[in-house]
Amino acid sequence: MDAIIRLSQITGFSALTWQQGVMILVGLLFVFLAIFKKTEPLLLLPIGFGCVLANLPLTGILDAPSGIIYLLLHFGVESEFFPLLIFLGLGAMTDFGPLIANPWTILMGAAAQFGVFVAMLFAQLLGFSILEAASIGIIGGADGPTTIYAAVALAPHLLGTVALAAYTYMSLVPIIQPPIMRLLTTKKERSVVMAQLRPVSRVEKVLFPIVVTIVVSLIFPAVGPLIGMFMLGNILKESGVVERLANTAANDLINIVTIFLATSVGATMQGDTFLTTKTLGIVLLGLIAFAFSTAGGVLLGKLFYIVTRGKVNPLIGSAGVSAVPMAARVSQREGQRENPGNFLLMHAMGPNVAGVIGTAVAAGVFLALLGR
Asked: 10 Å Cβ neighbour count for 16?
């Protein structure tokens, strides 16, 4: 009987709290959405399973110095190593051709940062410090690596929460954005068929990452590492002389880092720290930021629609958030709902990749004024 009692005391059931139980169910919900609803499985599946792992008691995976999740969080996330590698891979996957062909779409990427500043203001009104508010605001850019990068410098104690919110809303782009897009546009606007993009030369594509790296890094030195790695990946792709390196960055490297980073983000959803009023408030502010960012891009798209007398489809403005290429695919899907012959994907990729630069610039402003 003593042995049975001792055995019952060392099982995880004896230490399982209701908060951990709730978060395990949340993690399983993410896994369900990823597998059976195919809702951004590359992110939601490792995030959900990481949440489950983090809330299983007595496993030691979060314990210093050798817990596997502790090592991933400490050496990969808190050191900003994983976000930089993700940006390298994203650069190798990105085609700046649509942005170069229509440089005016960079304004949509800027307009889609509106939610960053709205959420920052709301956070301050709710009593968060200016550094915390800036970290929360960056969620509105829908860019997980940039959110992590800024949070580590400005409010490291909020790292887990803001990273989780950013990646969660990135995953839920196909669910969150469409209602906002339909609310702010008319059927006529959503049905607009845009003219084909002009061809972009190889020289333009090679010069673009070089020029952007130099200009942005000189203006905002703090964000130089992010932009530098992003553009390094892109020039590997566009140079045409290092195909093996470009393929590695765009496939094997980014896939491996995504597993580690997304699992680490999910593991920050620990029941005892996550289910608090403050944490849930940050998640809600992140949703507000993302909604206003989407609205900002769409409204500028409507302005372009008016100025060009109906030649620009406002839906591409919603892609100004930096969830690449998810937001662009949503613009394409919503356009085809109204007009099956409408193909907006390449047009939407212009503001989409501009949004990556825009979010990095917003982070650079915060880091320059408030942080390092």
From this structure: 16
pLDDT range class, residue 5, cuts 50, 70, 90:
low
To which residue do tokens 């995880």 refer? 12
The predicted structure's pLDDT at residue 325:
85
Per residue in 99-121, pLDDT (tens digit) is 999 999 999 999 999 999 999 99
**Mean pLDDT for all residues in the chain:** 91
- What does the alpha-carbon distance between residue 172 and residue 190 come to, in Å, rounded to a whole number? 21
Q: For residues 188-217, give the mean pLDDT.
A: 95
The reply to whether omega before 325 is within 30° of 0 (cis) is yes
Domain boundaries along the sequence of the chain: 82-370
Q: Which residues of 279-315 are buried (b: 16+ CB within 10 A; e: fewer)?
A: bebbbebbbbbbbbbbbbbbbbbbbbbeeeeeebbbb
Say how many C-beta atoms besides its own lie within 10 A of residue 57's C-beta.
Answer: 14
- In this model, does residue 8 exceed pLDDT 70? no
Please give the model's pTM, rounded to 2 decimal places.
Answer: 0.89
At residue 180, does pLDDT exceed 70? yes
Q: Mean pLDDT: which of 65-79, 152-166, 227-241 is highest?
A: 227-241
Q: Are 133 and 120 in contact (CB under 8 A)?
A: yes
